[in-house]
Write a structure and sequence with these properties.
Length: 382
């Protein structure tokens, strides 16, 4: 995992840290105060950098992580690569970016395409999307042939991610050495560059106080029957533009259970009923307010059965993308299926001028709901 350092520190689990906006000597001394003597250090291109042991090797019982926020006063920035967060289990590296003492962005190399967290999880999304490392075209699909092994290009994919991060921040070459620019052995995913079309002005795709499931790959009779057999008979149903749909009154059913059913319909539980695997895709939409439960509401976890995520797209029995809408909630999402459209609309990203120009922009999530509808070509259920 440390090939970016040319394996300079074999047998050691090290962190690679960059800082700017504070004197280099203050940065290095701050590491020493937390019992992390730099193994190597330097200055270049406006950044001070250091490599240090992940844990305090001088104390067998000291496994405390470095508090990089202490090294990042107002006006300073710190970029961290945890190269071996758990070498015994071969976990992928972690990345973190701190600004003004706060964690702006954090992700694991293992699941950065599904989830990034921090004050602004989309701080680098434009650069990551432009490099083809996130977005709908970035996922390797060749594993489905039963022969391809994604581990064969894991190191190359990791290097491409590190290069994208280094370029975005202008990180100095040492100690990253000469990172190769060659992409994964797979072809670089094509990145669409044509402008995103204007969001259509149409009636809401889902009415307030309503849950809706759209499905393609089956007709409305099959969809309605499957929902009824599961104990959720639809209030209304229809079929248009290649999609079947059913709706429920949100006061009559539990949204978490209905959204779970939407995922089940695409997986192995219904393969025999619907004529084979990977036949069905679903989109669940909720016309109810976003969950305000205090337990983990800012993360991509199911909060409670009464407040499902307002959008969920499922295939193969898995929720590929899900999030809440409006007031910037889209940044706290799982998956990047709609990252291009959300960036183009100014809903997410490092710069979001639409919110600055109009604090009430997309407050009710209507713009996002229309983006979702336009992306999938969903018919309105209202």
């Amino acid at each position: 995992m440390t090939t970016w350092l040319h394996d300079t520190f074999p047998g050691r689990d090290v962190n690679l840290v960059f800082a700017r906006g504070l004197p280099a000597g203050v940065f290095f001394e701050g590491l020493r105060e937390q019992n992390r003597e730099p193994l190597a250090q330097g200055e270049a291109d406006g950044w001070a950098w250091a490599v240090h042991d992940m844990i305090n090797v001088a104390e067998d019982t000291d496994y405390e992580e470095v508090d990089y926020g202490r090294l990042c006063p107002q006006g300073a920035e710190v970029v961290v690569f945890v190269t071996e967060p758990c070498s015994a289990k071969a976990h992928g590296p972690h990345f973190a970016y701190y600004r003004d003492g706060r964690t702006t962005l954090f992700f694991s190399f293992e699941d950065y395409r599904q989830q990034r967290v921090g004050d602004n999880p989309d701080h680098l999304s434009a650069e990551l999307f432009a490099a083809g490392v996130i977005g709908p075209a970035a996922e390797c699909e060749e594993w489905k042939d039963g022969v391809h092994d994604c581990y064969e290009h894991e190191d190359a994919d990791e290097l491409r991610l590190v290069r994208t991060i280094a370029d975005a921040f202008g990180l100095p070459s040492p100690p990253l050495a000469a990172l190769p620019r060659d992409p994964s052995p797979l072809a670089v995913p094509p990145v669409a560059t044509e402008p995103v079309g204007a969001v259509g002005e149409a009636r809401p795709v889902v009415a307030p106080g309503t849950y809706a499931v759209h499905a393609r790959g089956i007709d409305v009779t099959e969809l309605a029957a499957a929902c009824a057999d599961a104990g959720y008979p639809a209030r209304t149903q229809g079929e248009s533009d290649g999609w079947a749909w059913v709706t429920w009154d949100a006061a009559a059913v539990r949204g978490g259970e209905v959204s779970q059913l939407a995922g089940f319909l695409t997986g192995f539980r219904y393969d025999e009923r619907f004529g084979g695997p990977d036949r069905v895709e679903t989109v669940f939409l909720s016309g109810t307010p976003a969950c305000t439960c205090p337990n983990g509401r800012h993360y991509s976890v199911q909060h409670c059965e009464d407040h499902p995520f307002q959008f969920q797209n499922s295939r193969g029995g898995f929720e590929r993308t899900y999030f809440n809408v409006g007031r910037g909630r889209e940044t706290q999402r799982h998956g990047d299926l709609l990252v291009r459209e959300l960036l183009a609309a100014g809903i997410i990203g490092r710069e979001t001028p639409a919110y600055e120009a109009d604090p009430g922009f997309n407050a009710d999530g209507a713009v996002t709901m229309r983006i979702i509808a336009d992306h999938f070509g969903l018919p309105a259920t209202t």
